Amino acid sequence: MVKIRLTRIGEKKVPLYRIVVADAAAPRSGRAIDTIGTYDPNTEPSTVKIDAEAAKKWLACGAQPTTVVKKLFRQAGIK
Known about the structure:
Blueprint: E1 2-11, E2 14-23, E3 34-40, E4 47-50, H1 52-60, E5 64-65, H2 67-76
Parallel strand pairs: 1-5
Antiparallel strand pairs: 1-2, 2-3, 3-4
């Protein structure tokens, strides 16, 4: 199964996340199939950048977003 989820990058106590498409069995910060955006919770308000076309393509292919990614998609106006 393919999932759309967050991968943590950034320094200690300063999280920054990539929104990636990865195999469900892969580790959290493991190999990703595709990177479709970023999420920065440190800014006020939080910064979300998503490639909408790539996200829609992966959703059409059957990729399942996690609950947090689903919330970010709703904020960005995707699906």
